[in-house]
Amino acid sequence: MQLNSKFKALLAGATLALGLAACGGSGDTAQSAGSQPAAPAADSVAAIKEKGVIRIGVFGDKPPFGYVDSEGKNQGFDVEIAKEMAKDLFGSPDKVEFVLTEAANRVEYARSGKVDLVLANFTQTPERAEAVDFAAPYMKVALGVVSPDKKPITDVAQLKDQILLVNKGTTADAFFSKNHPEVKLLKFDQNTETFDALKDGRGVALAHDNALLWAWAKENPGYEVAIGNIGPAEVIAPAVKKGDKALLDWVNGEIAAMKKDGRLKAAYEKTLQPVYGDKVKAEDILAE
After folding, report:
1. Does one domain contain both 175 and 215?
2. For the whole model, what pTM was predicted?
C-alpha cells in the first residue's frame, strides 16, 4: 500500500476512531479533576504479565508515528516499538492492546491507569515530568511550521496578529502560548482537525513537531515546512504512571536493548525512512 493512500484512509476514518476511544477534556500537563489514581503495584511488570496483555497508548491519527490504517489496524513507528516490547514480555507482538489517545489526555491516561504505558510521540518536558515518569528517549524532535508554498511562513515574525493552528496540549501550543502572545492560536483536539483547518484556510500556518510536518508535507503537495526548527531541541520518550519504578526500569531496559541490537533503527527503516527518503537521516531522528 502506498503511503499516500494510507494518509487518505486515515483522514477519512481517524476522527471517528478517536472519538470512540478517547475520554474528554483532561489536560496534558496538569492535574485533572477527580481522585488521585491508586499507587502502582509493587511489581507492576509481574501484574501485566499476569493479565496477559500490555495496554499501550498510541495515536490514531499521526502518521507515520501512530495511526489506524484502512483495515482498522494500528501502524507506525511508535506501534512497531510497542510490538517489540510485547514480544519481549510475552513472546508475541500480538499481546498488546492499543488504546487510542490524543495529545491532551496522554498524562491522564497514564496517571489513571487507563494504559500501562504511553507511546504516543510524547515529548518530554519538565511540566509533564511532574505528572508522569519518562523512560529513556528514543527520538529527537523540535518544532516546525508548515504553510502553503504560495504564501510560505519563513519567520515567526510573519505570524504577528495572524492565526496559527496547533493541537491542544502539545509542545507547539505551550511554546507559542508562552513565548509569542502576539500570535493568535486556533486549537484543536485531533491532528485530522488541525490539518483540515490548514487546508481550509482557517490559519496561515500550522505548528507541530517537525518530524511529523516533514512527513505530512511530502504527502500533501502545495505545502512546505518553511520553518524547520524553532524552539528548544527536545526528546520523545515513553511515559508511565508516576512512581511505577518496576515498569519504568523495564521500559528503560527495552529502549536500551532496541538501540543496541538494531531494532529501533529497523523500526525507523520500516516506517519513517519510506516517508522521509534522503531528506532526513536516521541519526537526525533517533535518540542515542
Report:
1. yes
2. 0.77
